[in-house]
Design brief:
- The structure is a single chain.
- The protein is an all-alpha fold.
- The protein contains 13 helices and no strands.
């Protein structure tokens, strides 16, 4: 599905670079027998779709979890806020008999109380600062604690078997599709912006100043992404191979195509309408992904207390059911615990 959602900007690239005469499969008509051409063509389409979908899924995850977009919400920032709201923040009202959440026990030292208490008045020593009040050093510390805690909690849930993580799997699939749709929509939006600049430049071909102004968006993005690539590479000396600059690389490649679009845009392509449609799709998909990330994190947080409060008999029965489901579904394509856990690895 994520690969199919990439077709609009692939069609636009095909229109821009005129790949129609090269669209015949590379295996040619002389290599494959006539009776096998249909089957081979289907295999090629499926393989290309799987490759494209896998690439877009991985790139989109890093793209929307990169420090490039801060202070916009990234995956880590969303998770940090969810954990802070659930474990660390104090509400405007206070329970009379409970000083902690009813069934969510805060891990010892999880909220960095000593550092947060330095900013608080003496009258409320237990109250913690708002998340937005934490400094950069506190945010880094809290982010590391959250990511480690979340991976451990998620792994504990996933090890219970497929029947225990059905809701998590639904959220995981929704996150993958919505995040991929937002990524594809953003690429289409950026390409259409460059196309609009190209049409504008072609219509004002007699004005040299206007022609140069049309190149300004692509040039600005190119300078910005080159600066981000440099700062990323300098800041990732200790972990260059574990944190590749995928977001910067994507924008750099799209900007390269953008220069070509600005110089040789096809006026017959409705770039403005494509831009509006891409903006709507990107905004809706991004908002859906944002909220689904919140629900996914909350599901992990609130599922553990119920799991840990099970009686030994219930736990043994659940383990037997999960073993039976796992053995019967050994050939299915459902994601394993490692697949789901990879969705939450800390890339930055």
């Amino acid at each position: 599905m994520v690969g199919v959602l990439a077709l609009p900007w692939l069609v636009l690239l095909n229109k821009v670079f005129s790949f129609d005469r090269y669209s015949e499969p590379l295996f040619g008509s002389t290599i494959v027998p006539e009776s096998a051409k249909n089957a081979v063509s289907i295999c090629v389409v499926i393989a290309f779709g799987y490759l494209l979908g896998s690439a877009v899924s991985r790139f989109s995850r890093d793209f929307f979890n990169d420090e490039l977009w801060r202070p916009l919400p990234t995956e880590d920032m969303i998770r940090d806020n969810v954990y802070f709201d659930e474990f660390c923040s104090e509400h405007t009202f206070v329970y009379k008999y409970w000083s902690e959440p009813i069934h969510l026990e805060r891990p010892p030292g999880f909220c960095d109380e000593k550092r947060a208490a330095q900013k608080l008045p003496e009258a409320s020593p237990r109250q913690l600062t708002r998340f937005s009040d934490l400094g950069s050093e506190q945010l880094d510390y809290f982010d590391q604690e959250v990511q480690e805690a979340f991976l451990l909690e998620e792994s504990e849930l996933l090890l219970q078997g497929l029947d225990k993580v059905d809701r998590l799997k639904q959220y995981y699939d929704q996150i993958t599709v919505l995040r991929g749709a937002a990524f594809n929509g953003f690429i289409l939006f950026l390409l259409s912006i460059f196309g609009i600049c190209g049409v504008f430049r072609a219509r004002l071909s007699k004005h040299n100043v206007a022609k140069q102004i049309a190149l300004l968006p692509a040039s600005t993005v190119a300078v910005f992404v080159l600066y981000k690539l440099w700062t990323h590479w300098q800041g990732a000396i200790q972990h260059r191979y574990s944190d590749p600059p995928l977001a910067e690389l994507v924008i750099f490649l799209v900007t390269g195509v953008g220069f070509f679009l600005t110089l040789k845009a096809d006026a017959a392509v409705p770039y403005f309408r494509i831009c509006i449609l891409a903006a709507i799709v990107t905004s809706v998909s991004f908002g859906g992904w944002w909220w689904t990330e919140v629900m996914y994190d909350l599901q992990v947080i609130h599922s553990l207390p119920e799991l840990r409060n099970q009686s030994p008999a219930e736990a043994l029965s659940a383990q037997k059911r999960s073993s039976a489901v796992s053995s019967s579904a050994s050939g299915s394509s459902s994601p394993t615990s490692s697949d789901l856990t990879s969705n939450t690895a800390h890339p930055n």
